Amino acid sequence: MKKYIVFVICLSFLPLLGEVTLNNFGRINPVKEELDVEYSYEDNEYYVQHDKLKLIGTSLFPIANGYLTIVTEHENIPTWLRLYDKSGNLILTKEFNKIINLSITENGKFAALYNGNVLQVLDITKLQLTSFERSIQFAVNDSGVPIFVDQDENIHFQDHIFSFNENIRTVLFHNEIPLLITEHSIYKIEQTLQKIHTFTGRIFEAKIIENSLYVVIKNNSNYKLLKFDNSKDIEQIDEIFFERSSNRIHEPIFAPLNYGEEDFPFPIGNSYAEIQQYGNTPYLHPGVDYLGDDYQEVYAVHNGFVKAILTTGGDPYWRIAIANEDIPTETQGYLYAHLNENSFTVNVGDEVVAGDFLGTLYPWNYFDFTHTHFSRVFCTGSQWYGDWWTTENNLFDVTNIQDTIPPIFEDAINDERFAFRNSNRNYLDPLDLNGEFDIITKCYDLANHWYWKIDLYDLSYSLCSIDNPDSILFQKFAFVYDFDLDTYINSNVDFMILNTIYSRDATCYSIGNYQEREYYHIITNSNGDSLITEDDATESFDSAQFPDNYYYFKVTAHDASLNTTVDSMLVYFNNGISNSEENLLPTTNYQLSNYPNPFNPSTTISFEINTGNTEDTELIIYNLKGQKVKTFSVILSEVEGRGNKQYSVSWNGNNDYNQPISSGIYFYKLRIDGKDINSNKMILLK
Description:
This protein is mainly beta. The protein folds into 4 domains: 4-241, 7 Propeller (Methylamine Dehydrogenase, Chain H); 268-397, Glucose Permease (Domain IIA), CATH 2.70.70.10; 408-583, Distorted Sandwich (Coagulation Factor XIII, Chain A, domain 1); 593-684, Immunoglobulin-like. 1% of the residues lie in helices and 44% in strands. It is built from 1 helix and 54 strands. Strands 25, 28, 30, 31, 32, 33, 35 and 36 form an 8-stranded antiparallel β-sheet that branches. Strand 48 (593-595) and strand 49 form a beta hairpin. The chain is elongated.
């Protein structure tokens, strides 16, 4: 299958179209001639076609005597830079850990990029790379000399290093003289750092076009475009008024699209932490893809401070990261990716309010998949460099989504709902199970889109008696798609989780891309605490703990809107264990429940004890990360023989330190004589 979408982009080395003006967002309009480019995705390879040349790449840039392309598949595998001559012959391929904020000099002889560790400048003519300190704010002149800002906010140019205490908007070259643009001033470097102009308003944008410096000054909703000619005279050449801020404050969050519209059926293209594979390497999707229309407006979901504006692969990959707090130490925030750079209404250092307009969606080049990749992130630094963690499934926290479609189970193997596989990777007959084995389920969710299958929010499973299918002999939580992911760093955690929770053998092969979406979950690879570690891969279900008999396995799946589907399958255990009285386990489910659920501020947890061997009984409450929140020691009254006794515990939503906890999903377990007997889920809503 292949699909072409004709898309128009603006690139260097093309003649000017006309006068420089402002667009509707207060940004300087592109002034280069438009270039027709076709993108395609064929046989797991990306191509960009221009002027009868078909080159491998996801972005294309004209350079001196040829073209440069970059191949950006996703965030956690290397990005490739490729140089071609005018005839389309490949000159150079170079692998980088990342390619962030790629820029090319006006003469097309040098390219500069941040590779995730250091700034690098490529001499395109000599095919030589030179490395400098870490920086995502940089510019390079036509001689290949950079000016850049390091992570300590020092400015570097040639042999000079300048300390600076102002917020630097950007750096650039004007007639080979390096300029520093701050929030209110323009500086130049000529042996020393010299201020050349200060504005009463804030500098919103600055660009060099045909050897002239253009600056956009913002005063509230007023944007003025000023031109500096070579004699330093200033001329106002355009002005617009633009205001798109609702100042709405909420908690937890509204979705970044169709902001504030209640019960909106948001179509979701990819969910958090689901498996993806668009090239050779699988990864876990570090966010939620909210599908929208080309150039649809994107809004901030939380008050905060802009920490990063950067691209990881050309025009389609521009993104904004906004921290909740303006601090250099670790803080949480939100990432909005795949936006149009020339629609941005904010700069690094700006303060934003929930509901502020940020920019518009970039038209996606492949398939009908225009979207914003939206993540909750946490990072450190006065400015962020793109190496952040993602955390928690934000789709669960969106208060205005309407999704009524429950998860969908499919047969995992042949006509069997679940698959059973032993440690030798052999698949077992479900009516002749023995020893320890893994249970594999195949299921997915649809969120307001007929085609794009997404993965679930959580999974759990239980074993039930054939004689009483409602009685639970064994119950265990598998996992919740709410992990912390290091996709933007080194993906060591991602790969560990991926290979633990997903089956990837020839029979049950998990994959997710534009054409295939098959999610096979190894639900037994979990110790039940929802936190996935390397040890979880060794977990399994031990059928020898139960007498030979027929049983039902039941699997429960929730999506992020807590729509629920339960599916089951009949199995038989054949371990040579007789169904005698001494081997029988209690068939009660202990009637463990809580009411009300959801609750605020308190709930009552009830359970039934029907055995006399209950000297040490605890009720333990856990959060989604498997951390203990509250422990109750239950004092049992004496029970003669095997009578029934009902007990209850009231919980007010405080932890063991009597501190109130936040809204969310919590699990409670009944533990008797050191053994986990049963567990259940509850939701605290504040």
